[in-house]
Amino acid sequence: TGLKQLSEEGSTQVFFPTRNADIIVGAVGQLQFEVVAYRLKDEYKVEAVYESVNVYTARWVECDDPKKLQEFKDKAIDGLAVDGGGHLTYLAPTRVNLSLMEERWPDVKFRATREH
């Protein structure tokens, strides 16, 4: 898709929430969203409608224990998404929320970056 190709350029990240069919584009600043919308229209002939979402930060999720990971996924489903590369991601609405999740789930690693 056009969004996926644009995200591969590195200026944005694309997330697909596990709870619904929305697509979340992560970028720094309003201008970046306007650039994405313009390029989608100009290069891909797609009219994009976008609105802000309540996301403070994204964290890539890892856990060595499959059972603990499944428990986490079941409890945190509203905040989970899959990134453009198919990796599980937690979209924290606030810094406090992220801290609480890290505290409640010590077996789960919340990575600020992900290696390709």
TrEMBL record:
One Pfam family it belongs to: RF3_C
Compartments in which it is found: Cytoplasm
Chief place of localization: cytoplasm
Keyword Cytoplasm: yes
Boundaries of every Peptide chain release factor 3 C-terminal domain copy: 2-101
One GO BP annotation of this record: translational termination
GO cellular component, one term: cytoplasm
Keywords tagged on the record: Cytoplasm, GTP-binding, Nucleotide-binding, Protein biosynthesis
A GO MF label: GTP binding
Protein name as catalogued: Peptide chain release factor 3 C-terminal domain-containing protein
Taxonomy of the source species: Eukaryota, Viridiplantae, Streptophyta, Embryophyta, Tracheophyta
